Amino acid sequence: MPEPVFDLEAVIKRRGFLWRSFDIYGGAAGFYDYGPLGTAMKNNIVRVWRRYFVQREGFAEIETPNIMPEEVFRASGHLDKFNDVMLECSKCHEVFRAEHVINEGYLEITEEINVGSLALEDIGDLITAKGVQCPMCKGEFRPPYEFNLMFSTTIGRNKTGYLQPETAQGIFLNFQSLYSYFRGKMPFGVAQIGKGFRNEVSPRQGVIRLREFNMAEAEVFINPEERHYKGFDKVKDTNFTLLDQHGALHYLTADEAVAEGVIRHQALAYFMALTQGFLIEIGIDEERLRFRQHEKDEMAHYARDCWDAEVLIEINKKESWIECVGIANRSCYDLEQHMKTTGADLRAFERFEEPIEQEVERLKPDLRLLGRTYRNDAPKVREYLGSLSPPFPGRITMELNGGTVEIPKEFYTIEKRVEKVSGRRYIPAVIEPSFGIDRILYAILQHSFHVGKAREGVDSESYTILKLKPEIAPFKAAVFPLFNRAGMSELAKRVYDSLVETEMQVTLDDSGSIGKRYARQDEVGTPYCITVDHQSLEDKTVTIRDRDSTEQVRIRAEKVPEIIHLLVSGGIEFEELRNPESGGSD
RNA sequence: GCGGCUGUGAUCUAGCCUGGUAGGAUCGGAGCUUCCCAAGCUUCUUGCCCGGGUUCGAGUCCCGGCAGCCGCACCA
Predict the structure, then answer these.
(1) Is strand B in 7 Å reach of the CB of A531?
(2) What is the pLDDT of residues A398-447, one digit of tens each?
(3) What is the domain range of residue A411?
(4) Which of A20, A269, A393, A472 could form a disulfide with A254 if both were Cys (CB 3.0 to 4.6 A apart)?
(5) Domain CATH for A416
(6) Residue-wise burial string across A495-531, b where 16 or more C-beta atoms lie within 10 A, e elsewhere
(7) CA of A204 and C1' of B73: distance in angstroms?
(8) Chain A residues 545-574, Cβ below 7 A from strand B
(9) A482 and A415 in a common domain
(10) What is the value of ipTM here, to two decimals?
(11) pTM score, whole prediction
(12) How far is the CA of A40 from the C1' of B47 (A)?
């Protein structure tokens, strides 16, 4: 007996969901193509995502380049964090980060060495000079090598650029324009759907670890002082399965989780709730979904706190929890970094309800005296004095030309005056829900895949159904003429054409037995099949079949687009069609 | 990146040890059957991962590459 061919991977490839990229050239690890059905399904997922994370939240969606200049990633910290110098033992082939080997006691040095600032050769020399050996087996190290997780490229003639490892930076860089787009109203959110690129060492889990992947991210800018998040009340009763950073499992509502400090910010809990609702709506099995908090040493360099939505799927014959969404509190990190590097003002303004009158002290230098005394150094002294902020010390000293000088009291006066302060500036904190679209799509396929027993007389042993949610399914409906006989084909084509005029994706199939055609559609998750039969020719009715119950109801042919649309959008349930008043039979 | 195993039509596989250019099943196309849940019959399309070597001759043996799986490492 042959092995059952109806295994999910086979369906994914044969029916056109996902294909290995560059296949005729032997393929390349970490790259996948979306086939026609996969593309349709991905578009459907993205459509629902937009509804959740753009429309309903009132967020804005933007698009920024995939390639960015080096400076961006130097500021964002990705350059340091993604470029590790690695050392491999020539004997046991154990690999270490040079930074660890050099700074963690293997070397007889007192001060920390900033490994990131050393050239490759210098690190090699250092290793050789100090005779550092492999901590595991005392073997000799091979020469160090650079390990880049970002793809580098060249912009123009000789400017280094990188392919973005996340879409977030494009949003941060536009903070000023976005802030004014939202007319200075906080909080606000900005979404971007795009590609991320990471040059993984050995991506070996199919579509789970890609070198070029699809992501949908939202950056939500909030006031870091604000502990509440608007709309939290709406989600406070959401039930979570939470695995905290100490490995403790909690079953809590959003409200409880925040109150007990398991989730440390309302905004995090809010987007976790939104994420959970979204994932379940598009077909992730609730039982195979949980949130796991990152451990301290696991967190990205920019994150202060992070919860991953994880789905349980089978990879390489093993069940594992896979991160498919990360919901991070990035704090002020990114804006602060870009502000420091560029000098651009990436702050928001918080207007006080009432302007505050406060007494401020100001240091007012006597410029004439400064000039006469310090001559050419006077501007330096003036600048230094201007940089001081209250409270001012009794004696003011500064470094000048290698020595320390005291600025005599008569060189300045301290003025007190009342100022009206109408608000304050602050760097917003960022809450970021970040979705791995490819992983989500694959998890949905696994969670939707059902294998049943084939009927008597059928050659294959199993019958497979992809129980996709209608709004996610690549085809919403398929149209079949029962026979290719006078009238039926034409009517089927007319019904099909009427469906094509809607936004819905549909297919027409007149090849093979009727059972085979139902099976084809079940295999790719088409929720509804329309069949034109003998009776159709007499009274212009057709049957509509529900994928999961295989039940059939007869409806008028001209109502097909409307009814399919209602079924797909959740406007009516299939069962309701049995009631003639809903527009069903006769 | 290291070590082990593997690589046959769209899919699953037989053949490889004991060299003589490939067989099955599924899928797909066309037709018959006038078929409402992968029935049956006829017929057709598509294949030895790539390159080199050994040999009269290589899917089969050898070497290199690429890819996949397992283990180690890596996965912000």
Answers:
(1) yes
(2) 887 777 888 877 777 777 777 777 888 999 999 999 999 999 999 999 99
(3) 353-425
(4) A269
(5) 3.30.720
(6) bbebbeebebbbbbbbeeeeeebbbbbbbbbbbbbbb
(7) 14
(8) 545, 550-552
(9) no
(10) 0.88
(11) 0.85
(12) 30
